[in-house]
Each structure stands twice: as C-alpha cells, then as structure tokens.
Write a structure and sequence with these properties.
The protein is α+β, with helices and mostly antiparallel strands. The chain is 35% helix and 26% strand.
Length: 409
C-alpha cells in the first residue's frame, strides 16, 4: 500500500501507478483533491487537497491529509462543536505519540470507554414484542387473535426488557467496528478496539447511515457516558461516506474544515453570549430569506441574531483559503446582500487566522459598513475562547447600533 501524506491546501508530488491513480480519481470529490500530471515526467502527479482533512484508505492507497491546526486540535474543536465536552476537558486528545488520525480517534474512544464502563455497562428499558409461553408485560390481544386463531399458547406479548442493548452502547459498538475497518497502526489501539467489542458482545451491531446517527439525551443517570457517546457519534458522522464501489471499499474519517469552522464559531459565540439557537441562529434556523422580491435569490447567512421576528445582526464564518491578502470581493458582496435583505447597518465576516486580516469597509452611497475579523485557532480552547470574547463584544456593538436605527421593513 502506498502512503500519501498531504497537508490542507498544500501541493505535493507523488509517483503513482495507473491503479493507484484511478483509485484517487474515484475519491477525488470526496477528498476535495486536485490531481494534475507533473510536466516532463511519466507517472508523476501533483496532488493538492482543499478544505477536507482526515484519512482515507482506498484500493491500496492510504491518504492522510493533515490539518494546519494539528489532529488533536482538529478533534477538540469538532467535539466542542458537537457539545461533547467543555474547553477545560481538552485532554481527551492529548496523545502526542499517535501520528495518524485513526490512532488518535481509537485511543480517545478507548480512554473514554474505560472511564464510562468502569461503573458497569449502562442499562435501560427497551420495549420488545415476542411470543412466549409465560405471560409478562401486556398481552397483544389483536395479534393473538390474528396469529393464533384462539390457540392459548404461545402468547403474543409486549414488555419492557432491562438490558444493556440500548442506543448509547449501540453507538459505541458501531464506532469501534468502524474504526476497526480503518488503518490503525498502534497495537495498543487495536487491542483497545477489540476490548470494546468484547465488552459490548451482547449489544446489537447496527449500521448508522448518512444523516441517521441519533443523539442520546443525557441526565444524571447516564451523564458519565457523555464523552464516549459523543466520540462515537463523531466517528460515525465523519466516516459515513464509507461506500462500496464494486470490489473496492473506501474507509476513513474526513472533516470539512469549512463546515467545522462555521459550527465551532456558532457554538462558541452562543456560549459566550449566553444565548440559545433561537436567538443566534445558523443557516438552518433562519428560514426563508431572499434578496429579491417574489422569493427570488435565496440567501443563507451562517450567523444571524433575532429578537423575536426581527433580525438585529448578520455575519458569515469563512475558513476558505485566500490566495491574496485581501478579502475576496465575492465574500463582501455576499455579506452586503445579507445586510441589504435584512435591512441592517452592515455585517461581520469571521475568518480563520492566517486567511484574512482585520479590516473595515464603508460602502459608498449607503450607511452600511462591513467588518472583517480573524480568529486564531491555535493554542488551548481556553485561549481560543478569550479571542471569541473579542468577537462577541463586536457583535454586541453591532446589536446596539441596529437597535438604535429606524427600520424601513
């Protein structure tokens, strides 16, 4: 197997056989990978990933796309965005010797499972239906008559079983099996994955597909499972591109940094500003917004602040790679369209540090102003949150200005 080690937005050259090239071309869209032949050579290609990072194994090719912020930081941000843990719990991914993403994921899941299972496997009541020779629970009279035609035994029953075969344990087992399909190099990680599978031997193995990885509600009885279930959901959500194409199987774990940055910024600002998703909404919560009359030119801003039915602030979070030092005109046009459609005095563009510099743009012939800020993702989550507070104060300033202006809507 050839190992292809890349870094987001950076070009690398590799010699590839025809079958290896074909495998990468098949997965190029999934990987966000650009593949070009190197001029003057035979069988040598220039590979350049975009915003997708992670690991993928496909038909004899192992691809690792390193994030600029590092694997532990990547997973810390992803877990925080999902509500798995708070900033002070960043130690979950402190595995300095684990070089590959599957190894880090496996070691983190194993550590979280050992903590959760140390109190015994979580059990709960699961509603079941079965035909038994002794009565327990409730008799399903309709089914008894339909299936048994008056024969008294067995009895069609519905009852609650106190069992370990519950959703939380099913998610953890499914994640461990998904990790087993990846290239895990650490023998400690492989043994740990086997240990999880053995502990959960009596738990059903389900295949959670795209968009169907359910959440688990937590309370004082199962709070100790929060980390391990959160990690399991993270693994299942970001390896669900796994598919079969003929005899070729692709398996791995990929994250789009554009999506992650947006989700992290939104969650961090909500917590810092102490508001819910009904007040500070993401693109899914804004409803129908259009730039033109008759519902034409739909718009979906990443961030918007709502007081009841009135929008008071709009913003966008961008991780995208900027070729030049200035902010792309398209991003400013987009933000201006949001501010115009919502009748706001302007808006805020939030970039990842290193992708744009802070700036303000006063729009000619209007009273609107667009502001650009950069969020540094290096350091601990506590340090990042101190930087988020600066952005939160800017949003509060925008809110104050928007509330003082007359509305023409």
């Amino acid at each position: 197997m050839i190992k292809v080690n890349l870094q987001e937005y950076a070009s690398s050259e590799y010699g590839l056989r025809t079958d290896q090239l074909d495998a990468l071309l098949r997965e190029s869209k999934t990987l966000g990978l650009t593949i070009e032949p190197v001029g003057g050579t035979t069988g040598r290609y220039r590979l350049k990933p975009s915003s997708t990072v992670g690991a993928l194994d496909i038909d004899g090719v192992s691809v690792l796309i390193q994030p600029k912020i590092g694997i532990p930081q990547l997973l810390s941000l992803a877990c925080y965005a999902m509500g798995v843990y708070k900033p002070q719990e960043q130690h979950l991914f402190d595995f300095a010797k684990a070089e590959t993403l599957p190894d880090v994921l496996a070691l983190a899941l194993i550590a979280a499972a050992r903590r959760a299972f140390s109190r015994g496997l979580l059990r709960g009541y699961l509603s079941e239906e079965d035909a038994l020779h002794t009565v327990r629970g409730r008799i399903r009279f309709d089914e008894q008559i339909r299936r048994r035609y008056g024969i008294p035994l067995p009895v069609e029953l519905r009852f609650d079983e106190f069992t370990e075969d519950i959703l939380a344990n099913r998610l953890v087992k499914a994640a461990a099996v998904r990790l087993r399909r990846m290239t895990v190099q650490s023998s400690k990680a492989r043994r740990g994955i086997g240990w999880i599978a053995a502990i959960l031997d009596n738990v059903s193995l389900l295949e959670f597909r795209y968009g169907r990885v359910p959440e688990v509600p937590f309370d004082r009885l199962n709070e100790h499972y929060r980390h391990v279930v959160g990690l399991a959901r993270l693994i299942l959500l970001h390896s669900e591109f796994e598919s079969f194409r003929g005899d070729v199987r692709a398996s791995g774990f990929l994250i789009d940094m554009n999506v992650l940055f947006q989700e992290f910024v939104t969650q961090a600002l909500r917590e810092t500003l102490e508001v819910s998703d009904r007040t500070l909404r993401d693109e899914r919560g804004i409803g129908r917004l259009t730039l033109a009359d008759k519902n034409k030119v739909p718009l979906r801003p990443d961030l918007s602040w709502w007081d009841g039915g009135s929008c008071r602030f709009v913003g966008d979070a961008k991780y995208k790679k900027i070729v030049h030092s200035s902010v792309p005109n398209a991003d400013l046009y987009q933000l201006l369209a949001y501010a115009t459609a919502l009748d706001l005095p302007g808006g805020l563009l939030i970039y990842a540090q290193g992708e744009a510099e802070a700036a303000k743009y006063k729009i000619r012939n209007t009273r609107k102003q667009l502001e650009v800020v950069a969020l540094d993702l290096s350091g601990s989550l506590e340090e990042i949150f101190e930087r988020v507070k600066v952005i939160a104060r800017k949003i509060e300033s925008w809110l104050s200005e928007a509330r003082q202006l007359p509305r023409d809507l």
